[in-house]
Amino acid sequence: MELLDSFVVLEGLDGAGTTTQASLLTERLDRAGHRVLATSEPTRGNIGTLIRDVLAGRIETTPEALAMLYAADRHEHLYDPAHGIIRALEDGWVVCDRYLFSSLAYQTVQCDYSLVYELNRRFPLPKHLVYVDVSPEMTEDRRRSRPAAEIFENLEFQRAVYDRYAKAIDDFSGGDMQVHIVDGSASPQDISEQIWKQLGITPIN
To answer: Which of 12, 114, 127, 155 has the most C-beta neighbours closer than 10 Å?
Structure first.
């Protein structure tokens, strides 16, 4: 499977802090003199916006259709000739908050694993996968401060997702992709330091 150098993906449960860590990593890469693009999935494009409407409960669809929407959004995210990840990697680093591992962890709670796997197995892998490991119970406590819950943000579902992340990471490990598991129960700054140390990126200024 193709591996994309200078591509970093952050994964974890809802409330694990992946968005915060993606932002901190982007800032640190920039300070170290690297060109870097921060992005996320679902995207802010047309397909990604539709997915966000489903997650917010504003529209309904089947679990299988949602899995296909994620794959379509991911394809556009990667291969858009002007703004896609592949294009951005020509200029520097890309830090992405969630990628195909989220599909394998979340969509397979309600869909057959083989369907979601087939939809995603041809996508290239990041050079670095960072998994922010936090228990479902801790993320449940963190999510209580949020103004509104998405459809997957309940403890029972997140427990199922937690188990499936282990399988998803295992299925795509064993090659050249580097898997970094960090303790997500620490403070945001401590987690950021864990990630920076494990990535081993050399400053250029």
So the answer is: 12
